[in-house]
Amino acid sequence: MFVPKIVFFDIDDTLYLKRQRLIPDSARDAIRRLQEKGIRVAIASGRSPSVLPEAAKQLIDEYGIDPVLLINGQYIRYQGEVLKAFPMQRQVLAGVSAALEQAGINHAFVSANDVAVAWEEAHFAAAAAELGLPYIVDKRHYDTQEVYQMLAFYPPEYDKAVAAMLPAHLKTVRWHQYGVDILDAAGSKARGIAAVLQALGVQMEEAMAFGDGANDVEMLQAVGFGVAMGNAAPELKRLAKYVCPRADEDGIFRGLRDLGMI
């Protein structure tokens, strides 16, 4: 039986049910049981600090969950401090923003304090509504804030065209029918986890992770034991070492129980 020293959980549709906007009691119970066994619990989310769901904030505070990896590993909090951060260069942000605006593609900038959208339109509204995304409108947000990743809002048929606009050192990761992350090609939850484990003195093979989306691919590949949710993207299920039940079917609790960890 694999017994990790630390377990990383994605938030949306892993721990947190987006549609119901809650964390199941069974997931909370699972976290408590892990901690009682001396297994550290951590968060690894694509969300930024400013857009964490209230239920997730309460969970982190109530259970003392630490560390917390946010913005796909680009912004890491540990013991009340920023352990590591990977901001994008301002000239890169300005160039990508100009190219997207010229193509008529709306976009946003993700800082520690805000999600700042260039303008308001239907594709952004659809993606923001599903996440319950608070935001401001500021097309030059990078002038005053460190920006860790961008978002862009367009349907999948524009994927190739947008990829061709971007510098080679950037990548896109789709998280919604109309929403993608734009970040450094080396950036991922796995890079953030590596920084955390170095600080903790834990080996990558001693870590476990649960996820459901395209932004969890590197994370599940990197850790010693990657678990995909039953509601996960097919690509994630293929590379996971275990597929647990769906998030809305007590997947976290049932998966950990079936693995003999709780």
TrEMBL record:
<dbReference type="InterPro" id="IPR036412">
    <property type="entry name" value="HAD-like_sf"/>
</dbReference>
<dbReference type="InterPro" id="IPR023214">
    <property type="entry name" value="HAD_sf"/>
</dbReference>
<dbReference type="Pfam" id="PF08282">
    <property type="entry name" value="Hydrolase_3"/>
</dbReference>
<dbReference type="InterPro" id="IPR000150">
    <property type="entry name" value="Cof"/>
</dbReference>
<dbReference type="GO" id="GO:0000287">
    <property type="term" value="F:magnesium ion binding"/>
</dbReference>
<dbReference type="GO" id="GO:0016791">
    <property type="term" value="F:phosphatase activity"/>
</dbReference>
<dbReference type="GO" id="GO:0005829">
    <property type="term" value="C:cytosol"/>
</dbReference>
<keyword id="KW-0378">Hydrolase</keyword>
<dbReference type="InterPro" id="IPR006379">
    <property type="entry name" value="HAD-SF_hydro_IIB"/>
</dbReference>
<protein>
    <submittedName>
        <fullName>Cof-type HAD-IIB family hydrolase</fullName>
    </submittedName>
</protein>
